[in-house]
Amino acid sequence: KKLNVAVVGATGAVGQEILKVLAEREFPINGLKLLASQRSAGKEIQYQGKSYIVEETTHESFQGVDIALFAGGSASKEFARSAAKAGCVVIDNSSAFRLEPDVPLVVPEVNPEDVKWHKGIIANPNCSTIQMVVALNPLHQAAKIKRVVVSTYQAVSGAGIEAIEELTKQTQAVLAGEEYPPQVFPYPIAFNLIPHIDVFEDMDYTKEEWKMVRETKKILHDDNIAVTATTVRVPVYRSHSESINIETERKLTAAEAREILRNSPGIIVVDNVQEKQYPMPLFTSNRDEVFVGRIREDNSLANGLNLWVVADQLRKGAATNAVQIAELLVKYNCI
Ligand code: 11C
């Protein structure tokens, strides 16, 4: 069966990637509607050789739509509930509904069955959470993770198209000895790191850090996993990297962990230090898999492991995960 699909936020960094992934995976589309804010309405976008005009999103946009993929941002709060009421299934990439009890939060490699109990909205987790849980779930199943300590190195494209331009122009300006005042980020990102993503909340953690804590528990169905995070913006265009330390109930050797991860869905292990092989953001972009390397036993802990996890956050962290959820809806016949 072919479906009527809407993409909300079609002109943004994630929206553009959603269109690419839908085409690549040959998602069965009957009609395609491209929606965005008033500012982007009227723009022309090509999809599989056909030209589409972007329309302004309204509460009436979703009549006759089977699946609406929301790229994220403020449109979700405004339109997702009314889209669901109009009878379509919303796959939402914003943070608005992720922790709502009536909204499944799904990573297809981890908790695919959760799509079955949707009530009109399914949430796509935060990008840095997705790549972490893809890597952690197989280890959690094998040895039960008690605690996670994660530090992220997040690419500028996580903050949208304007942020990509800010990194380029600011780098050029610095090299030319000129000033380029920050607009998207609170400080210059060129030749710098900023340990601050999104707004500060409880206990001086950022919202991005709390997302990693709370979303991980919901996706893994385990409120007992202790998670603490430090999230950092780095001058990289694309692909988030994460240094992850875990403590498990049962001891896992590095060799065992490597073997488990090699046999798990959506993961590529790149871990041969003799040959200088480890994942890096420059080489994981435009890929759908989560890359894991630097797998080592924690020398300071009886049952601890260190991992280095890198993935294209616009693809697996957003667009690909959302399209995989759409594929699950088709597979489980729950549209
Ligand atoms: C970033 N993780 O890299 C953010 C972007 O909750 O979906 C994604 C925000 C979200 O800036």
Q: How is this structure best described in words?
A:
There is one protein chain. With 335 residues, the protein is of the alpha/beta class. It is 30% helix and 23% strand. It has helices at residues 13-24, 74-85, 127-143, 161-175, 207-219, 254-262, 281-284, 315-331; strands spanning 3-8, 29-36, 44-47, 50-53, 55-56, 67-70, 89-92, 121-123, 145-153, 226-230, 240-248, 267-269, 290-297, 304-311. It has a six-stranded parallel sheet, sandwiched between helices. A six-stranded mixed sheet has the order 10-9-11-14-13-12. A two-stranded antiparallel sheet has the order 3-4. Helix 1 crosses helix 8, helix 3 crosses helix 5 (207-219) and helix 3 crosses helix 8 (315-331). The chain starts with a strand and ends with a helix. The model has no long low-confidence stretch (mean pLDDT 97). The structure holds (2R)-2-aminohexanedioic acid (11C). Residues 72, 93, 95, 126-128, 154, 158-159, 197, 208, 211 line the site of (2R)-2-aminohexanedioic acid.
